[in-house]
C-alpha cells in the first residue's frame, strides 16, 4: 500500500515501522499492521 510521508512518520513514531529502504524519491518500508490502521487518517487504508 502507498501512504503519504506524514503517515509513514506516524507509523515510525509509534514503533510500527520494522525496516525501511530509502531511495532518492521513495521509502519502501515494512510495518506491523496490527494496530497500525487506527493510526492512519484515511479511510482508504481500512481493510
Which ranges are low-confidence, i.e. pLDDT below 50, for 5 or more consecutive residues? none
List the helices and strands in order. Answer: HEE
Largest beta sheet: strand ordering:
1-2
Major pleated sheet: 2 strands, antiparallel
End-to-end Cα distance:
11 Å
Number-wise, the strands total: 2
The figure for the number of domains is: 1
Structure description:
The protein is of the alpha+beta class and 47 residues long. It has one domain. It contains 1 helix and 2 strands. A two-stranded antiparallel ribbon has the order 1-2. Strand 1 and strand 2 form a beta hairpin. It is globular, with a radius of gyration of 10 Å. It starts with a helix and ends in a 16-residue tail after the last strand. The relative contact order is 0.25. The mean pLDDT is 78.
Notable features of this structure?
47 residues, globular, single chain, 19% helix, alpha+beta
Provide a compact summary of the structure.
The protein is an alpha+beta fold and 47 residues long.
SSE topology sketch:
Layout: H1 5-13, E1 17-22, E2 27-31
